[in-house]
Amino acid sequence: MLRSRNTFSSWRRALAQRAVHAGWAWAQRMGSVTAEHPGRFRFGAMGTGTRLAFPLGTVFGEPWIHVGSHCIIGERVTLTAGLMPDLDLGPDPILCIGDGVVLGRGSHVIADTTVTIGSDCYFGPYVYVTSTNHSYDDPHQPIGKQWPRMEPVEIGPGCWIGTGAVILPGARVGRNVVVAAGAVVRGTVPDHAVVAGAPARVVRRWTPDAGWQPPLRTPAPVPIPDGVTPEQLLALSELDEEAAARLAELDEEAAARLAELDADS
């Protein structure tokens, strides 16, 4: 019988693969940036429990970047203050990120002038926030050579910014706003609104008198009852796994029984 040419290489490949994965996991742990282990970065402020995942995106102007506590900054997230590195931007912070903010993988926050992100905001992957845009006033000059325009950006607390959304200079996004995936936001967005499209427009809004208009099409999620501990939630998840495993066993037994019946017939 012919033996496979890869008989002896398969176990080497498996060992090499495990070594690569283990090495990468180690690099991710060692390369992440925290207040306790900032590496070469000197942020103006960074709260406890905050972590910038490795590999990082472009980061510069960090003395003018303030990041709150318990934030999660995903892999390859760009955080910049100022037009370029090594500028003196004055005494005040330029980019301020509140507590409990999550910035999804590959997102960019470009703060050439003031950008403020409120606490408990969640960004999906590849969100782009910028306080600068190109100008095109002079029709005879290439747009890239014309001096850009800058306007502050403010995103209120509790917002959810969907994947691929773009927040343009001068945007004022209110509290607890949903920005749909791929939306391009400019101007002012009121509190408790849902915006979508390019340019983004309000497609749903909540007010104390009328509630959500148009009405929500899905029922509200059932909140976790008061007094439930994390240990109890963990135990419930383990029960769910056991139930799923048992259902899989029953499915296999049923399939085997059906096969026996087919064979008998």
From TrEMBL:
<keyword id="KW-0677">Repeat</keyword>
<dbReference type="InterPro" id="IPR001451">
    <property type="entry name" value="Hexapep"/>
</dbReference>
<keyword id="KW-0808">Transferase</keyword>
<protein>
    <submittedName>
        <fullName>Acyltransferase</fullName>
        <ecNumber>2.3.1.-</ecNumber>
    </submittedName>
</protein>
<keyword id="KW-0012">Acyltransferase</keyword>
<dbReference type="GO" id="GO:0016746">
    <property type="term" value="F:acyltransferase activity"/>
</dbReference>
<dbReference type="InterPro" id="IPR018357">
    <property type="entry name" value="Hexapep_transf_CS"/>
</dbReference>
<dbReference type="InterPro" id="IPR011004">
    <property type="entry name" value="Trimer_LpxA-like_sf"/>
</dbReference>
<dbReference type="Pfam" id="PF00132">
    <property type="entry name" value="Hexapep"/>
</dbReference>
<comment type="similarity">
    <text>Belongs to the transferase hexapeptide repeat family.</text>
</comment>
<dbReference type="InterPro" id="IPR051159">
    <property type="entry name" value="Hexapeptide_acetyltransf"/>
</dbReference>
